[in-house]
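Milestone 3.1: sequence recovery, worked example.
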C-alpha cells in the first residue's frame, strides 16, 4: 500500500507571551507536538484520538500546510509540506474546527462555485460536482439561500461540501462531529464511512473514544503532544480486555482529595481510578453538575463494598454503569486520566 502521509520526528513549539510586570514579557514555550512519527496508508481512516489540548489541531495544521513544524519532516501524497506546500494544498482538502471560512453574504451554491474556481475546476464539471454533493449531503433545501440565514447544522454541511469540492483523495477532518447533536453526528459518521468506501483516505481527529473506535482502521492516541499508542482499535482494546470498567456519576462538588478515593483504590478488585470533575450538560434532572469517577477493575466485583464507600462518606451516587472495554480504558491505563479532561491549560 502507498503511504499517503509520512510524518518523521515532527515537533512544534509555540511561544506564548505572558506579561510579567509592566514592561517585561515572559516567553513560555509550549511543546504542542513532540517528536511525532507515523504514516497513513492509502484507503485508511486514520484516527487521532486525544483530550483537549493534546496537539491534534496543531498536527492537522502542519499536515495541511497551515503551520510550519519547528522541526521534523512530513510528506503528504509524496509532497513535502514545507517545500511543496502548494502541491499539497492543491490535492488535499480539510475541514478544521472553528475554521469554516465560508462567505456569509453569498448563497451556499455561490460559495461552492467560488471554491471550485479556486481549484480551477471547469464550470461544467463544477456544476456536476455540486449536484453530487447536494444529493450526498442533503443540501437541496438551503443551498440557494444566503449563508447568514443558515442554522449551525446547515453551515456545517456546507463546510463539509466545500472540503469535498476538489474530489480530494485525502481529506483531513478536525473533530468533525464535536459541535453536532447526536443525530447529526451519526449522519456525518455515515458520510465519512461512505466516502472512505468510495476510496477517500481520511485523517480524522476526535476526543470521542467511540467515534475513533467506530470509524478508524488505525488509531493514534495523542497526549501532551506525544503519540502514546498506535494500532487498530481492536488491538488497542485487547490490552484492557481482561478488565471491566465502571463509570460512576457523583456531584462535582465532592472533594476528590478525601480518603474515599484512596479507599476505592484499595479495594482488591479495583486496578485504576480516574476522575473528571467537570462533565458538562448533565444538569437536566436538577442534580447540578456531575463528576465522573471511572474505575478499571476485575470483571467480578463486590458492588456492595463499592457503594458502601460512597455511602460512608455521604456522597450521593447518581448512576453506576459498567462499560465494555474502550479506547478510553487504554488512555487511562497509559495516563491515569480520562479523555474528557482538558489539558490545554497545563
Ligand atoms: N497559537 C498558539 N499559541 C500558543 N499555544 C497554542 C497555540 N495553539 C495551540 N496552543 C497550545 O498547544 C497545545 C495543543 O493545542 P491543540 O493543537 O489545539 O490541541 P487539540 O487540538 O488536541 O485540542 C495546547 O496546550 C494549546 O493551548
Ligand atoms: Mg483541536
Amino acid at each position: 500500500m502507498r503511504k499517503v502521509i509520512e510524518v518523521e520526528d515532527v515537533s512544534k513549539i509555540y511561544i506564548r507571551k505572558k506579561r510579567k510586570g509592566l514592561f517585561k514579557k515572559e516567553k513560555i514555550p509550549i511543546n504542542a507536538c513532540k517528536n511525532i512519527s507515523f504514516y497513513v496508508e492509502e484507503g485508511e481512516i486514520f484516527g487521532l484520538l486525544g483530550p483537549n489540548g493534546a496537539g491534534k489541531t496543531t498536527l492537522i495544521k502542519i499536515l495541511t500546510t497551515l503551520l510550519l513544524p519547528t522541526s521534523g519532516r512530513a510528506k503528504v501524497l509524496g509532497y513535502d509540506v514545507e517545500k511543496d506546500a502548494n502541491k499539497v494544498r492543491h490535492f488535499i482538502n480539510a475541514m478544521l474546527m472553528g475554521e469554516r471560512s465560508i462567505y456569509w453574504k453569498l448563497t451556499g451554491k455561490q460559495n461552492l462555485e467560488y471554491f471550485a474556481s479556486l481549484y480551477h475546476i471547469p464550470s461544467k464539471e463544477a456544476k456536476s460536482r455540486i449536484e453530487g454533493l447536494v444529493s450526498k449531503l442533503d443540501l437541496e433545501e438551503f443551498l440557494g439561500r444566503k449563508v447568514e440565514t443558515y442554522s449551525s447544522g446547515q453551515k456545517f454541511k456546507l463546510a463539509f461540501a466545500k472540503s469535498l469540492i476538489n474530489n480530494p483523495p485525502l481529506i483531513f477532518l478536525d473533530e468533525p462531529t464535536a459541535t453536532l447533536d447526536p443525530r447529526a453526528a451519526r449522519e456525518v459518521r455515515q458520510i465519512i464511512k461512505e466516502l472512505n468506501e468510495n476510496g477517500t483516505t481520511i485523517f480524522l481527529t476526535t476526543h470521542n473514544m467511540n467515534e475513533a473506535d467506530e470509524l478508524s482502521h488505525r488509531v493514534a492516541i495523542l497526549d501532551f503532544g506525544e503519540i502514546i499508542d498506535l494500532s487498530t482499535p481492536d488491538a488497542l482494546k485487547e490490552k484492557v480486555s481482561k478488565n471491566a470498567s465502571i463509570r460512576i456519576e457523583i456531584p462535582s462538588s465532592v472533594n476528590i482529595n478525601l480518603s474515599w478515593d484512596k479507599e476505592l483504590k484499595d479495594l482488591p478488585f479495583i486496578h485504576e481510578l480516574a476522575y473528571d470533575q467537570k462533565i458538562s450538560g448533565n444538569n437536566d434532572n436538577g442534580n447540578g453538575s456531575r463528576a465522573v469517577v471511572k474505575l478499571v477493575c476485575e470483571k467480578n466485583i463486590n458492588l456492595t463494598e463499592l457503594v458502601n464507600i460512597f455511602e460512608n462518606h455521604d456522597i450521593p451516587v447518581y448512576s453506576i454503569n459498567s462499560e465494555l472495554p474502550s479506547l478510553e480504558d487504554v488512555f487511562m491505563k497509559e495516563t491515569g486520566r480520562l479523555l474528557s479532561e482538558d489539558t490545554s491549560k497545563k
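The domain at 244-324 is CATH 3.30.70.260 (Alpha-Beta Plaits). Residues 56-57, 97, 174-175 surround magnesium ion (ligand 2) (CB under 6 Å).
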